Amino acid sequence: MRIGVDIGGTNLVAGLTDAQFQIVDKLSTPTLGKRAEKEIVDDIIRLILTLMEKHNLTEKDIESIGLGVPGWCNTDTGIILKCDNVNFRNTPIAKLLQAVVNVPVFLANDADCAALGEAYGGATKDVDHSIMVTIGTGVGGGIIIDKKIYNGFNHGGGEVGHMVIDMHGLPCVCGRRGCWEQYASATALIAQTKGAAKANPNSILYKSVGGDLEKINGKTVFDALAQGCPVAENVVDNFARYLACGIVNLISIFQPEMVVLGGGVSKAGAPLLSRVQAILDKECYGDVTSLPRAKFCVATLGNDAGVIGAAALGV
Amino acid sequence: MRIGVDIGGTNLVAGLTDAQFQIVDKLSTPTLGKRAEKEIVDDIIRLILTLMEKHNLTEKDIESIGLGVPGWCNTDTGIILKCDNVNFRNTPIAKLLQAVVNVPVFLANDADCAALGEAYGGATKDVDHSIMVTIGTGVGGGIIIDKKIYNGFNHGGGEVGHMVIDMHGLPCVCGRRGCWEQYASATALIAQTKGAAKANPNSILYKSVGGDLEKINGKTVFDALAQGCPVAENVVDNFARYLACGIVNLISIFQPEMVVLGGGVSKAGAPLLSRVQAILDKECYGDVTSLPRAKFCVATLGNDAGVIGAAALGV
Questions:
Q1: pLDDT tens, residue by residue, A208-234
Q2: Nearest chain B alpha carbon to A158
Q3: Pairing state between β B11-17 and B2-7
Q4: How many angstroms separate the Cα of B301 from the Cα of each of B117, B235, B267?
Q5: N or C: lower Cβ tally within 10 Å for chain B?
């Protein structure tokens, strides 16, 4: 059995997985990320020990412990370099855990763990090469090659959200212009929806929030589309173009067997997915040679992907 | 020893390499790509046999034969799927060669071979992860991970030239808009140079070709820049921005140890390279964690990269 810990900005979640990477049991506690580093580490250790005790497991029963980190880490040395929302900085987390539980400890970025989780227990479990694109505050990426995370020589790769798709476009927090996540994140979709609602006060979209733009979330535009709103349709059409643009780029570069879409917006279902798929069908390069095509699908594990992927780090 | 064959649009070049991937000897013959498939295959076999006879080598002395193909191929089955300029279509080239020379035969796309050649005998020989970007008629790419070519599950990956960097930009032959090669290829540079010369008939640039825009090639703008032409400087500044935009994208995604630039334009030297490097220094994501940075350099093997990379396919 293996243990995976998803260190989230809100909760620490530790899960026990079986040989098929199914979650047997799961415990969680609030992260309270601004606490002293030691207190957070102690809580992670407590979750792990509680899982082991509860299931009568000793160190010998646990093949590996994996950690999904919301920031940068050195996967070779087991050190968390930096997190934005959790008080870890150059934290030798693997060593700290192993001082208490003598089991091999692995760590990786949380977006990478989610991609690996889907690759072991979810949408991409039957393929070796996949890319997971997670639509959230930003656009996260996890690249899986031969069932392993690929993140470059310095563990900083997979930043697909900062691929520029419109070099004269919107400024990004990273300092560049036109990064994919300025167009295809949930944040971007909400901004696009607000802009369209504001410009069209007679639309179903505008009326659906009673004219209060602050009520708009990532679902609003799809609800209005379902009611036949042409303004919402235009927003969704454009968002699908933005999303597909980056996905086609990744397919041209990687030709993975599958691209899997995660994050809340992926739950929009057919209205979004069918539009993206139509663009992929048209634009994915390579049809001249009747090469098999990368498949596009939606993540199936939800929040469990991070725990399962963390557990699979030791494979 | 190994043999690498670079199947070019103009020439077939076969090279014999030693254990350090240095070329010991090299023979070539015109490709005449429109000939019958069998005639081209026979010429490839003849080059290989001549190299072996000349150096008194038997099949046992040759560890592998590799072929660099100017088109798509299935590296698993040894079949050339399609070439644009050479009359191969679903050609079982490995089998045809092995019927005469019983040595393991490997094949790969020529841009991939060039990248592998640099990785074994050239600019990137000391690193495991590199990406080669070749500036020519288009923008070619070769992705090397753990000293092996990465080209995806269907052997069609590495098409970095068709990464969109300006989604509302110029139409591309592939059917998309704003592909990198529409901005950063030699073809694009020449078009940009012509446009600037035409718009500025008093410029050094315009006068350097005596007002005959058809005399403009990939070197013209750098020559005018060397003479202090501000119009040329503007063209080079913009071209460097286009080139750097795609390179930063690739670094954000892959974090390779090195990005190596090949093709004729890479010979422009410092005036181009220093501009690109300045943008990489500013825009490559990851400095928040003081991660080591991907290095940017120029290819060193020239046309030999393809032969050396083909020879290295069997490693």
A1: 999 999 999 999 999 999 999 999 999
A2: B253
A3: antiparallel
A4: 8, 28, 12
A5: C
Q: What is the mean pLDDT of chain B?
A: 95
Where are the domains positioned within chain B? 2-122+302-312, 160-298
CA A140 – CA A263 distance, rounded (Å): 9
Which two structure tokens, joined as six digits, stand for A72? 């940068």
Query: Which is nearest to B236 in space by CA: B218, B250, B263?
Result: B218
Domain boundaries A2-122+302-312, corresponding CATH code: 3.30.420.40
What residues of chain B lie within 8 A of the CB of A242, using their CB?
167
Cα of B122 to nearest chain A Cα, Å: 19
The predicted structure's pLDDT at residue B284: 87
ipTM: 0.94
CB B311 within 8 A of CB B14: no
**Mean pLDDT on B71-80:** 91
pLDDT digits (tens, 9 = 90+) for B166-223: 999 999 988 899 999 999 999 999 999 999 999 999 999 999 999 999 999 999 999 9
pTM for the predicted model, two decimal places: 0.94
Q: A160-298: same fold as A2-122+302-312?
A: yes
Q: Which residues 194-213 on chain B approach chain A with CB closer than 8 angstroms?
A: none
Interface of A with B in 245-264 (CB under 8 A): 245, 248-250, 252-257
Q: Are the beta carbons of A140 and A161 closer than 8 angstroms?
A: yes
